[in-house]
Amino acid sequence: MTFVDQVTQCIQASESDGSIMERTEVLSGYSGKKLYGTLQRLAKEILTEDTCYLEVGVYQGLTLLSTAMVAPERTFIGIDNFAFFDPEGKNKGIVEARTQTLGLTNTKLVNMDYEDALEQLDKHLDGKKVGIYFIDGPHDYRSQLMCLQLIQPYLSDDAVILVDDSNYRHVRQANRDFLFTNPSFKLIFESYTPAHPMNLRGEEKTAALEGWWDGINIIVKDSKDELERIYPPTLRSRKLYENEHLLQAAQYPEQILLAWEVIKKFRLFPILNLIRKPSKIFTGRFKNANTYSEEFANQPRFAQKRS
Ligand SMILES: C[S@@+](CC[C@H](N)C(=O)[O-])C[C@H]1O[C@@H](n2cnc3c(N)ncnc32)[C@H](O)[C@@H]1O
C-alpha cells in the first residue's frame, strides 16, 4: 500500500466512523469528531520512531492530547503562544494539568509565536522529521501561508498536512497559493461545513461537531506523483486583496475593526447600505460573519489517483 493509500484509508474510516477514542471528560476544545478521528488514525498508522506529530494552535489540548493518547510510543509537539482565547491566562496550565491527568509522557509544548518556533524548529525536534502537521493557529492569510512555507525543510518524505478552518475563503486561498507554487504537494481531501460552528444552530451545528468542524483541507507530500491535482475553491477577486492592503495601510485599523464589531453586534447593517450599495461578493445566509463555505458544504471530495 502506498503512503497516499494509507492517508486515504484513514480519512475514509473517519468519514464513516468518526473518532477512534471518544474525547474524555478532561478534554474540551475546538474540533470536530471526523477531524480528530483522522488525526488519531494517522498517528497510529503513519508515525514512526523517526517522525513526529506537530501542531500549531493547542488551546486547551483537545487535538494534541487526544491524538497523543492513541499512540503512546510516538512523539507529539504543540506550538502555542497562548495569546488568544485565554483572557485569564489559564490555557497553558490547563494543557499541563490534562497531560498529567491522562498520564501522557509523549507530548511537548513549545510556548512561542508560531513563526519564531518554525524558523528554528530543529531545536525542538530531537532529530525527528515531521510526519503529521496540523495547522490550527492564527487564521490571517499570511500566517496560514507561512505555516505551510516554513515547515517544508522539516517534513519527512512521506508527510501529511491538515489545515483546520478551511471554511474561511482566505485560508483556502493560502492553501491554494501554496499548492500552486509547490507542485510536489497535493490536496488529497477537502470538506466544508456551512459556517463556523459557533454561527450554526440545531442539526447543522451537531453535524459540524460530529464532522469536520470549520472545514478541512488535507495536503500530502506526493513524492511519487500519484494524485491528480485539485485545488480548494477560492475567488479571483482583486478587490478582496486591495481591501486588505487598504486596511493594513489605514492609520487606525483597530478602530475600523471595532466599528465593524459594533455594527455586527447591534445589527446596524442597513446603515451601511445607505452609505454604499451592498457588494455582490458578500452573499449568503452568513454574509455578516462569513467563512464563504456555505455553497461547498457537505460535498466531501477526494483527489483521484492519476491513471
Ligand atoms: C482554535 S485554537 C486551537 C484549538 C485546538 N487545536 C483544540 O484542539 O481545541 C487556536 C490557538 O492558536 C493559538 N495562536 C493564535 N495565534 C498564534 C501565534 N501567532 N502563534 C502561536 N499560537 C497562536 C491561540 O493561542 C489558540 O490557542
Summarize, please.
With 307 residues, this protein is an alpha/beta fold. Helix content is 40%, strand content 15%.
Describe the protein in words.
The protein is an alpha/beta fold and 307 residues long. It has 2 domains: 3-234 and 293-302, 3-Layer(aba) Sandwich (Rossmann fold), CATH 3.40.50; 239-275, no CATH class. 40% of the residues lie in helices and 15% in strands. It is built from 12 helices and 8 strands. An 8-stranded mixed sheet has the order 3-2-1-4-5-7-6-8, with helices on both faces. α3 (62-70) links the parallel β1 and β2 (75-79). α1 packs antiparallel against α2, α2 (33-46) runs parallel beside α3 (62-70) and α7 runs parallel beside α8 (169-181). It starts with a helix and ends in a 5-residue tail after the last strand. The model has no long low-confidence stretch (mean pLDDT 92). The chain binds S-adenosylmethionine.
Unique bound compounds: S-adenosylmethionine
Give the low-pLDDT segments. Answer: none
Supply the CATH superfamily name of the largest domain: Vaccinia Virus protein VP39
**CATH architectural name of the largest domain:** 3-Layer(aba) Sandwich
Number of extended strands? 8
| CA distance, first residue to last residue | 16 Å
- Total helical segments: 12
By secondary-structure content and strand pairing, the structural class works out as alpha/beta
- Percent of residues in beta strands: 15-25%
Indicate the overall shape: globular
Strand order of the largest sheet: 3-2-1-4-5-7-6-8
Q: Helical proportion?
A: 40-55%
Mean pLDDT: 92
CATH topology of the largest domain: Rossmann fold
For the record, the CATH class of the largest domain is Alpha Beta
What's the helix-strand series? HHEHEHEHHEHEHEHEHHHE
Indicate how many domains the architecture comprises. 2
Main beta-sheet annotation: 8 strands, mixed
